[in-house]
Amino acid sequence: MKEYKTITRIAGPLLFVEKTDAVGYGDIVSIALESGETKTGQVLDTSDDLVVVQVFEGTSGIGRGAKVRFLGETLKLGVSEEMLGRVFNGAGKPIDGKAPIIPEKKADIIGAAINPFSRASPHDFIQTGVSTIDATNTLVRGQKLPIFSGSGLPHNEIALQIARQAKVLGEGEQFVVVFAAMGITNEEAQYFIQDFQKTGALSRAIVFLNLADDPAVERLVTPRMALTAAEYIAFEKGYHVLVILTDMTNYCESLREIGAAREEVPGRRGYPGYMYTDLAQIYERAGVIKGKKGSITQIPILTMVGDDITHPIPDLTGYITEGQIVLSRELHRKGIYPPVDVLPSLSRLMNLGIGPKRTRDDHKAVSDQLYAGYAEGRDLRGLVAIVGEEALSARDKRLLKFAEAFEKRFVTQKRDEDRAILDTLGLGWNLFSPIPPEELTRLSPDLKKKYYQPSS
Amino acid sequence: MAEKAEKTKQSTVAAKAGESTSQKTMSSQAQGILYRVAGPVVVARNMPAKMYDVVRVGNERLMGEVIQIVGDKVVIQVYEDTSGLKPGEPVFNTGKPLSVELGPGLLTSIYDGIQRPLPVLQKEQGDYIFRGLDAPGLDPKKKWEFKVTAKKGGKVEGGDVLGEVEETPGIIHRIMVPPGTSGKIAELKSGKYTVDEVIGTLDDGTELKLKQIWPVRKARPVLKKLNPTIPLITGQRIFDSLFPVAKGGVAAIPGPFGAGKTVTQQTLAKWCDADIIVYVGCGERGNEMTEVLTEFPELTDPKSGKPLMNRTILIANTSNMPVAAREASVYTGVTLAEYYRDMGYSVAMMADSTSRWAEAMREISSRLEEMPGEEGYPAYLATRLAQFYERAGRVQPLSGEKEGSVTIIGAVSPPGGDFSEPVTQNTLRVTKTFWALDAKLAQRRHFPSINWLTSYSLYLDTLEPWYAEHVNKDYRGLVNEFMSLLQEEEKLLQIVQLVGSDALPEKEQLTLEVSRLIREFFLQQSAFHEVDTYCELQKTRRIMKTILMYRDLGQDALGKGMRIQKILEVKAKNEIVNSKFEKNYDALLDAVEKNLQQEFAALG
What we know:
A: Rossmann fold; seven-stranded antiparallel β-sheet; B: alpha+beta; 16 helices; globular
């Protein structure tokens, strides 16, 4: 294999190499530094005159004397069932001090698109034990449901709680968790790993860590590594996999960094114009395939910059994922855990997973009524600030109380509280009790007869 | 005839380009050398090329399209993943624009954005779509029963019907002479043929087949565009009365995520009175596309009782499939729609969502390092949108026989639900019907969640004569009354928020009650109730009439000094709602009207 010493320019994470033989787009590059160290990179742009290489570990220490070798293959991950219980760095190398993985196969990390005709419609209800998700924003197996959070909000705790508690009713089997960290702090990463160890979940987990001080460019491959492992475990080994990706905001920042280093024409807020497609290639690697036992469910976490949901990252994500769980700073300040704001939250696949045969006949109606009551109650708070509570009608006062109770009793739960769906629905009916039945317009007379009990 | 000849001449160039060779067949062509690869956009050198030629890139023959020519360099967008491509690999120019195969077998098909049948891809490659695979759009092995209708020795021109094939039960596929071809029929025989077999010849030796090829970016020629004067009847009260779309018209449905775009599109696909449906899922979510792919084949056509798929073509290009194919998918869809239009059918094309299509344009434009326009979209966004929507229309096809139409219903997904963004704004400039979905209405469970204040239709005037002739002369008048009542309600509600409804004059209180009836008894319609899901025009009119009768009787009574409270307590008006769920609505509303009169008479 030829070695080149023709680096002409080094800028940010990029190397520019000249006078090479034909080099394939996306090929892996090995860079031998003068110090004897080797780094890995990938070809971003190739032409007769110039090859642009992005270096995963960063370009520090690379000089024009470094030797570059093109390995002639695209980035692959050796996958195996042995990966369960192991911890890898963001580039897929084991960092837990145990023996290297003996791969059963090498898989290209740029996953191919699932043929829409091969997909099966996702409809298995996942009980997460979190009321605001189970009752009003139901997660189903094969869905991608992101958590839109803000810096300082407890999204990690929620993700962990979901990972611990998630199960499909009637099946004993737990999810295998594939966890990909992108640019999070060492402390956060430790928090996850310790929790996995404490609960014994680590033996059924595959962890990829790219921490805040790891090279930013490596972040671009971390989620793809994780999803490649997930696809193998799910569709070839038949496990149900829950993939947690945190934090997608850091991923997008890296994407922007590379774009800027390549002097591309920037799109909205400086993010590259292809960010939608790039994110789609990550998020769309969730689903269920006809005739295959396993599945991939995704919970990407992203922190909204300045809590702005119209920022390009949450905006583009929302158009690819099947809904979103939105966390609220206001609820968090009130001391409510989990601070899920149900109003802007949504699960697009909810109706596929609920109902008489899957959860219970009243699920949809209870969810609608909770939404309607809470929305109106919250609106009234604004009015109270102006005219005072005394000026409200009896009905409005009831709604105001309902909104309060909804936050305190329904939304709020303990970090280790695993609420069964039937308990969650029961709690909903409990909240309806103080309200006269004729004001509960979303609930049909039949359902009210079956479940409604007025409070004495 | 002079007009026809001219049109035919214009179209000759395009037709010749696509003649009898598919973009998918490889033959020896001009060859270039790959010079640069950077993502889905690649550059080749030393290759004669024209804009939008389809090329085959690299040793794997990946499909691509020429999108820019600079000196001796040709910029190509590739429809497949380009990893591993190297400079120096060969590039073949087919010399032909991106084209689709048109012929029997299109209906019931499920395609990707460049007309590759997804079930065939699955069979050949498994559950994932890998690159470098060719699959013809039409099944080359299937034999079709062809019946000649044209006379041997007769003179034919482009668009003339040669014969018929029953494509799916009840749907006749008319086999036409490709545009740009003409001559005397020397030979034409009924029988069983595949799409590639010769069914006859013209006197100049031109072979005739069941299949023809057409470049997707070029509109198929027509004899004449007609005014859209016939409504597309949807069976949905709010569309058929307040905001109708004409056959051959264009409608836009913008809405934030979660407002019910997909449900609305699907209800329309199910109930509208178009003969053929083309549904394009452009950049959609995989799991949602699966819902469409699994649900559509199970739906039955309420009119014929046969599977809805018999008259449907689905095109699915999910968000993670190659971006260039997403860009092409809407053109593929509209070309198939035009082809059925030329047979004399009315076709409805649903595009979900055009925002994803615009986003694909933006992405490719930024790869080309073009100067961006508003919000990073290319400056030609408005032109492209307008060109696409302009392919809708009610037309007299080249044959001059049965008229056909293409109606385009495009969903728009504005970021953050903000209607002022470029895609929505540029769409509004060219579409004449605007159905604004409202997330608030959806949350209040008012379905269909179309906002009646921000939506509009500019077809009301052109369609008026049709409604007068086929429904009743008073139809437009009733619609106008409803519109002004709803406008009035909006104004009054603002006052009510400040002072409460009791403070309003009695006449206005009546207006509020009447508009409540309009909203709840008329605008709301259940897609899940077997009767209410489809409302015929006569029924729509009858409900409008009965609601207005209550208003008129109420106003009379107020004039005679009756108290408003009494008028609001009239019981018969509440029975109007039952007519929604009643097949025999006439008898029911007769009774309601009689009761109304009696109750008002009893009041005083």
